[in-house]
Design a protein that fits this description.
By secondary structure, the chain is mostly helical. It has 15 helices and no strands. Residues 197-341 form the O-antigen ligase-related domain.
Length: 418
C-alpha cells in the first residue's frame, strides 16, 4: 500500500504539471464549451487531496524514519499565505466572469501544492522523486513523438507545438524532458540512452522558436550542473555525447534544415537584428510583450499597494495576461502580492540552503526552468508547477538521502564501455 501511494503521488504530481488547462472537450469535433468537469486538472487535484488525507492518517501513528520526506512548515505557510492573498484579491477585482475562473485556478494550485506536501509525509524520498520524474519523462517523451510527427507531417514550416498548446508551453515541456533524462542519468542510468534523450529535448525546444524557453532551459541545465557536483570526466562525456547526438540529428534527419531555419529566424534575426520590420536594424523584437509590460506597470502604479484585483488585467481589456509573473502579481495584487511572493522564495531559499547537500539537482533545475520561463510567457496558473516543484524539492531534501556526488549504480560496461 505504501509503495502504491508513493507511486501514485509522483504520477499525479507529474500529470498535474503537464496537464495545464487541457480538457477532453477539445477532442470534440465541434469544440464544445470549456467545462471544469472535463478537465483532468480538477480530477488530479482531487486525487492529490485524497492522498493528502491518507498521508495525515498515516503520519498520525508513527514517527518519520531516515530517508523519508518531511515537508517544511515555513514554506507551506508562505505558499498558503500567497495563494490566500491572491484569492482574496478577487473581492476588489473588476466585475468579470474571468475572475471566477482565475479564482478557481488559484484554489486548485493552493490545494495541489499543500496537499502534495501533506501526502508526501512518511514517504521514501527517492521513490517519490523516481515516480515523479518517471511520469514526466514518459509523458513528455510521448508528446515529443507526437510533436515530431505533426511537425514533419506539416512540412516543417511552422513552430513546433502539440495538442492545442503554444510553442512556449511545448518548449517548457521539452525542458522538463531534458531534466528528467539528466535525473535518471545522474542516478546511474545508461549514459548512451539518457544524454541523447536530454539533447533531443533541448533540440525540440529550439524548434519551437521560443527564445524565453531556450533561455530557461540553459539556466536550468546550468543549475543542474552546479548542484549535481558532476565529476569533470562525466561532464566531458556528457558534452561529447550531446554534441554527437545533436550533430547526428542535424546531419542525417529532416530536422536539420528546420533547426537551422529556427536558429536564424527566431534567435538571430528577431533577437539581435530586428528593428521596424528590417532585419538589418539593431533593435530586439519582443513579440509585442513590451506593450503588455507597459500596461501592467501602468495598472500597478494606479493601485500600487493592493493592485487592481485578481484577473483585472484581462478584465480591463489590457490583454490576456502580462506574460510576466512578477508584473502580473504587481498589477493584480500590488506590492503586498509581491511581498507574499518574495516570502515564498525566501522560505524556499532557507530550506535549500539548509539542505543544500541533499538537494536533487534536477528538481532545482526544474524550479529554475519554470521561474525563468514565467518571466516571458504564461500567467500565474501556467507557473503553478513552480510552487509544486519547490514543495517537492523541500520535502525530499529534508530526507537527506540524495547523493552528494554522482555515483553510477551501473557498471561501466552497462553504459556501452563508457
Amino acid at each position: 500500500m505504501k509503495g502504491f501511494r508513493c507511486t501514485a503521488l509522483g504520477l499525479i504530481a507529474a500529470l498535474y504539471v503537464l496537464a495545464g488547462r487541457w480538457g477532453f472537450y477539445r477532442l470534440s469535433p465541434g469544440g464544445s464549451d470549456a467545462s471544469a468537469v472535463l478537465e483532468p486538472r480538477m480530477w488530479l487535484v482531487m486525487g492529490g487531496f485524497l492522498l493528502a488525507t491518507v498521508g495525515l492518517a498515516h503520519a498520525a501513528w508513527r514517527r518519520p524514519e531516515p530517508g523519508e520526506t518531511r515537508p517544511d512548515a515555513g514554506l507551506g505557510a508562505a505558499v498558503l499565505a500567497f495563494f490566500v492573498y491572491m484569492g482574496a484579491s478577487a473581492s476588489w477585482a473588476p466585475d468579470s466572469p474571468l475572475v471566477g475562473w482565475k479564482l478557481y485556478e488559484v484554489i486548485l494550485s493552493a490545494i495541489m501544492c499543500l496537499g502534495f506536501g501533506i501526502a508526501a509525509l512518511r514517504q521514501p524520498a527517492e521513490h517519490v522523486l523516481e515516480s515523479f520524474w518517471g511520469g514526466i519523462v514518459a509523458a513528455t517523451g510521448l508528446l515529443a513523438l507526437v510533436g515530431l510527427r505533426t511537425f514533419l507531417g506539416g512540412g516543417g514550416g511552422e513552430r513546433l507545438a502539440v495538442m492545442g498548446g503554444g510553442p512556449n508551453v511545448f518548449a517548457r515541456l521539452m525542458g522538463l524532458l531534458a531534466l528528467g533524462a539528466l535525473y535518471f542519468w545522474r542516478r546511474g542510468g545508461a549514459t548512451w540512452l539518457w544524454i541523447p534523450a536530454a539533447a533531443i529535448g533541448v533540440l525540440l525546444s529550439v524548434l519551437t522558436g521560443s527564445r524565453g524557453g531556450a533561455l530557461s532551459i540553459i539556466a536550468a541545465v546550468l543549475a543542474f550542473l552546479a548542484l549535481g557536483r558532476i565529476p569533470l570526466r562525466r561532464l566531458v562525456l556528457l558534452a561529447l555525447l550531446a554534441i554527437v547526438a545533436t550533430s547526428g540529428v542535424v546531419a542525417f534527419t529532416p530536422l536539420g534544415k528546420a533547426l537551422s531555419h529556427s536558429m536564424e529566424e527566431r534567435f538571430l534575426k528577431l533577437t539581435l537584428k530586428y528593428q521596424g520590420g528590417d532585419s538589418a536594424g539593431g533593435g530586439v523584437y519582443l513579440s509585442g510583450r513590451e506593450v503588455l509590460y507597459a500596461r501592467a506597470i501602468a495598472l500597478g502604479r494606479d493601485r500600487p499597494l493592493m493592485g487592481a484585483g485578481l484577473a483585472a488585467f484581462p478584465a480591463l481589456g489590457l490583454g490576456p495576461y502580462p506574460h510576466n509573473m512578477f508584473l502580473e502579481i504587481f498589477c493584480e495584487g500590488g506590492v503586498l502580492g509581491l511581498m507574499f511572493l518574495v516570502g515564498v522564495f525566501l522560505a524556499y531559499a532557507r530550506v535549500a540552503f539548509r539542505g543544500r547537500r541533499s538537494l536533487d539537482a534536477a528538481t532545482v533545475g526544474a524550479v529554475v526552468l519554470v521561474l525563468v520561463g514565467s518571466q516571458s510567457s504564461g500567467d500565474l496558473y501556467d507557473a503553478r508547477s513552480l510552487f509544486l516543484l519547490m514543495v517537492l524539492s523541500a520535502c525530499t531534501s529534508a530526507a537527506g538521502t540524495v547523493p552528494v556526488r554522482f555515483e553510477p549504480k551501473a557498471s561501466v560496461t552497462s553504459e556501452g564501455g563508457t
